[in-house]
Amino acid sequence: MKQILYIDDNRTSQMIALHILEQVAGAVAVFTTEEATRKLAERKFDLIIADYQLANGTPIEFIQQLRERMTTEELPVLLVSASMDKVMLSEALAAGVNDCHSKPLNKPSFRQMVEKMLLTPYVRECEDRFLSITVVSWTCKLHHYLHCPELHMTFDGDSYQDADAKLSAYLETVSSKGIIFSQFEAIFNPKIHTKVVKLND
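and the corresponding structure tokens:
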């Protein structure tokens, strides 16, 4: 019988997932990626399913380390999340995840995805890649500044719009497809915003 390792730090979510998974394979649930690493050292699994948001962070680093030893065909990985979006999907696929599914899991599509992955592992194709970046803004002596920690760059202008235009122009130079979505939220002064950028293939 095929064996599935399920990683989720919520006991109720574990119970729901195991009820579904045990209908198609043997299944074991753990709370952390550290526990998962120990389980993988003890026995063979045919599929790993991990929740994106765990108490000790995301499973992305765990998946990247796993891919250094095993391919997506040798040990496929599914990522699940209640807040699946394009940024998360891009990050997951880049890390070596085979496919993703949104919660709740009590849907026919989830069971079908699991059965398909156990039968013939595949990797979901991602037509577009997205990156979420942080933008910190502040004003000094009537001059406006935008700093992006991920890019290690600061943009300035006589107005916020001027500085933002410079940032947008730079992003378009590194991605011919430009910015797909921008969302701004003032947290405090200085203000923190987020931008979601569509990347080149």
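(Above: one complete record from the training split.) The longest strand covers residues 129-140.
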